[in-house]
Amino acid sequence: MAGGREIKTKIKSVQNTRKVTRALEMVSASKIRKAQDKMKSSRPYARLMKQVIGHIAQANADYVHPFMATRAEVKRVGYVIISTDRGLCGGLNSQLFRRILADMREWQGRGVEVDVVCVGQKAATFFRRLKVGMLASVTHLGESPTVEQLIGVVKVMIDGFTEGRIDRVNLCYNDFVNTMSQKPTVSQLLPLPPSEALEAKHDWDYLYEPDAQTVLDEVMTRYVESLVYQAVLENLASEHAARMVAMKAASDNATKLIGTLNLVYNKARQAAITQEISEIVGGAAAV
């Protein structure tokens, strides 16, 4: 059995760890509400953008935007991967990465090349070690990410798709369901998936000024940026929720461990006292 001094050192170490985990839990609990508010305030814009794009997809315009044209053969797939910059958020990133790797292996099994752009330090570090093309990355977006911070990585994928170097683009992030649940999501970003079109049929079209190509080029770019930005906000809310839950579990485990170590310490202390009494009695009997 370990000595009393060694056990007291372990107890002190676990107590210090518990202070850290409780502090991180409180910080995440205070930030999650702001992250949720930003995420919810951005959802109407993303939803209406999908609605507009759905109308355009069903319209019979003379100009068909390249983002709406499904290519007959897919030779290269691009991934926009959104992760956290920091750890200590449970299995949030690892679950997403496993989901992405399974999808990548499926494409690579068909002989398809893979390129990625990463948003977040964890994704950039992880996928840089793999045999995939790292086209761009952006990290440390902070607690209030903006669209301007994402334009660079989004443009890399848009240019690759427009120029024909990439045939399909997937968006990967953690979808915020609730505080206790975050869903790893890999969705098709480009070309526009059929599910984006509205179910209701119509026989009207928009009037484009100055022309359909100029307007649609701008609208489609804003559409892609809005989806990526919304995904970043969803992932940010998921990060704080996952960290809060993980740090609470760590604090609870530390409390249980401290109780166990205190019990072990008391037993060791009692054993030492009993041994000292036995030595005293034995010495007295010898005299």
Q: Name the shape in a single word.
A: elongated
> Which secondary-structure class do the elements indicate?
alpha/beta
Count every beta strand, where a strand is a DSSP E run of 2 or more residues. 5
Contiguous helical run count: 5
Along the chain, the helix and strand elements come as: HEHEHEHEEH
- Beta content comes to 5-15%
Average per-residue pLDDT, rounded, comes to: 86
Q: What is the CATH homologous superfamily assignment of the largest domain?
A: ATP synthase, F1 complex, gamma subunit
- Which strand order spans the largest sheet, edge to edge or round the barrel? 3-2-1-4-5
Q: What profile does the largest beta sheet have? A: 5 strands, mixed
Which residues form runs of ≥5 with pLDDT under 50? none
Q: Brief description of this entry?
A:
With 287 residues, the chain is of the alpha/beta class. The protein has helices at 4-58, 92-108, 121-128, 147-162, 212-286, and strands at 76-82, 113-119, 133-138, 168-178, 181-190. The protein has 2 domains: 4-25 and 245-286, ATP synthase, gamma subunit, helix hairpin domain (Helix Hairpins, Orthogonal Bundle); 41-243, 3-Layer(aba) Sandwich (Pyruvate Kinase, Chain: A, domain 1).
